Fold this sequence. Notes:
Blueprint: H1 6-16, H2 26-46, E1 52-58, H3 60-64, H4 66-81, E2 84-90, H5 92-95, H6 102-108, H7 113-124, E3 128-133, H8 163-168, H9 179-191, E4 195-200
Amino acid sequence: FVTSGARMAGIDVLRERDVEPNIFSAAQLAGIGARHLLNLWDRWCWDKYQIITSQLLINYVNWRDAGERRSIRKNILEPLSKGVILLINQSDPTSEELAQDEMALMLAGISDNDVLASLVARLIGAKRILYCTDVDYIYERRPIAGQPLPRPYLEIDARNIPAHLREETGNGVNGKGGVGSKVVAAADSALAGIDSVITKLCI
Length: 203
């Protein structure tokens, strides 16, 4: 279960304590919000089914190393076999400076948690992947406040993602993701033979 939202959770925690979030970097906000985010997911979802969860943080250095990828795979599949759900997130606090190195980021291919989800799905041999979003549709252009909504896509070719969706990748309101990022990641998953679905999630 790859989840985003740690930065916004960090902002919420700080505001509840009357601390100004703007004095912290994005990575520091993610570090503050990480535990809070996991607690929220437990309360929203897992506790009602008495499911045990565990956290796994990954950065591009982990992924680049074949031995560490094997360790990641093992430490996802073994707990799953015992009924433990892994809550996986890109390790923002340890990736902040590394992310400045565009070549390293390109080599790893981990630009956000949607891409990370696709990589994890392939690593563990998943047959299906579900990308959840808070938007109603994938539109032919970005909606503009006060103007009629553009037409939603009826079909998108995984081998020919529209340029504006690729450009929107990494520009989510609440983090580095966004619906464009989900389209690109879902296309990559689909081309790898994994059933890929993007859907709206309401909690």
